[in-house]
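Q&A log
Question type: sequence-to-structure
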Amino acid sequence: MDTLNAMRAFVTTVDKGSFSQAARTLGASKATLSKQVAALEDHLGVRLLHRTTRKLNLTDEGRVYVERARRILEDLEDAEDAVSPLGAEPRGRLRVSAPHTFGAMHLCDALASFVERYPHVHLDIEFSDRLVNLVDEGFDAAIRISTLKDSTLIARRLAPVNMILCASPIYWKKHGKPKHPNDLVDHQAIIYSYLSTPGEWTFQDGGKPFNVKISGNFTTNNDVVIRSAAVQGVGIFHGPAFIMNQAIRKGLLEPALEDYYTDPLNVYALYPSSRNLSPKVRAFVDFLVEWLSHTPDWEAPPQISRT
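Response status: OK
Response body:
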């Protein structure tokens, strides 16, 4: 049995949802692929797929095996690309993790342009604010907004992201604008639950960072919901400017405490060092560096006169 071809037949069948679709993708007959998967099951001594007349379902063993097999095939593809004469042409499946709100607001056009430029790359992107483990979960790269800490991952800085504190004009009129971050103790904070310290916000005074305890009766893990709540006067938001700048330009939100903002965070592209020569990863990261060099001005919040 040709184990690699059997793996490829199995993974493609799972990805396409049927032997017929997989056969068209691989340029083989449906009967051939079915025999290859059956031979693979005999070789492993387990059933990988439940077959019915209408659909295929993975068994528990199949769910485990398909991810491992997919990773093996992707690593083989990377190895071949790295040494082949066509190695400069990116191709294959590219799995990327990116922050949900940032991705939706600022990456959609970039991703569409990337797949247009590189038609042989199959971009598979997961928008989520969870911190994925690239190696264990089989991701090729991740986009993260952070202050970069020591890591075994390779990082490319893509763009700065300023932090901003703001609330609706109605909220400021009712409660007054704080003069110092310590005044926030008397205000309602809208709290982003994915912060490493959700009960604290960080500012700086004279270049020295300090934390301020905050509290409020509205907590969520969704930035868009936070923006909506802030516009409706629920409380104060402190977070990335790219989320709020459009609402600020429209006069729906007003910033405060500009003299105490921390240094910008950065958008990074991260990828495992073992894959840093993969043409598809290199092309993707280089493309984002180029794209975000002409980024919208989220890093320059509009100035609003103070009251």
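Response note: The domain at 163-260 is CATH 3.40.190.10 (D-Maltodextrin-Binding Protein; domain 2).
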